[in-house]
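Long-time lurker. I teach an intro course on protein structure, and each term I like to show students one example going from raw sequence to a predicted 3D structure in token notation. This year I'd like something fresh instead of my usual example. Would anyone be willing to generate the tokens for the chain below so I can use it in lecture? Attribution to the forum is fine with me.
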Amino acid sequence: MSTNQMLQENNKGFLSFLYQKRKIWILFCGSAAVLSTVISFLIKPQYLSTAIVFPAATSSVSFSEQRNAKAAAMDFGEEEQAEQLIQILQSSKIRDRVVSEFQLLKHYEIDPSDANKNYKLNQEYSGHFSFSRTRFGSIKIDVLDQDPVLAAKMANRIVELIDTVKNEMIAERTLPAFKVNQRKLDQMRKDRDLILAKLDSLADLGVIALDVRSNLFQAYVDAQNENDRAELKKKIDVNMKYGAMYDGLEYMRNEKIVKIEDFNVSYEQAESDANTKFSHKFIVERAVVADKKEKPKRLIIVLVTTILAFVVSVFSLLLWEKYKELKA
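-- Reply from a regular --
Happy to contribute to a lecture. Here you go:
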């Protein structure tokens, strides 16, 4: 007998076996279908609300002339920014605020005094909130809940919290840096003002700048009046005594002014990073109230349960027949 003939004989035998036992597996499958239908109607429906956002490419304004053209405020973020945004969305900073604002412990009927309340809450949160990248590089925020209005509110609230949480995270680093820059700039300005005050005091004594000082000697030679010569001599003596100090202070003043001007760019950048509250996303689609349940899919539940019941019943009948053969 060929292999094909053997297969045909086996198939005929199997179909014959199914026909003989049809009452048993039909009853089993029917019971499973009825039971799964009842259970599917007892499951509370869940409604899905979805918001879609794109990450922004940059989180600051650059004051540098060599600014990266791909880091403009209007540019969409790429894979790296999308992954960072997902990490923020999955963080406890956002989860804890959502749990607190919408009283999810009460909403999910978790006893606050339960020793495992945090575990149960995290399980519920993970089952109702999901964040994923789309093939277009955007971030999809999905929220499932029995209340469709609440699901939409929570999804939109998470969109708002993206900027709040990320700005707080940025401020934790940029604010101390700005304060350091501010202290340094204040110190540089104080040093400059101190030099200016010393220059003013020397100027009050009659000390003048180097380029003008040389003219005093010519004026002294050309002076015809004794009083003028005495006055000029006094100025020359003062400038001879304090001229070097004046020149040194003037050089320090010029150096300090240049440094302050150069440092202003760094200061303005630090001030912008610390104080500017940026939007870190582009909202593509806000969540809306769902008018159709997402799950349970009752037809799928009944079909899967019925097919599974058929497989289990046939397999059990085959095992029983085999057992009877072996026993005999």
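Some talking points for your students: The beta strands are 47-55, 129-133, 139-145, 281-285. Residues 175-275 form one domain.
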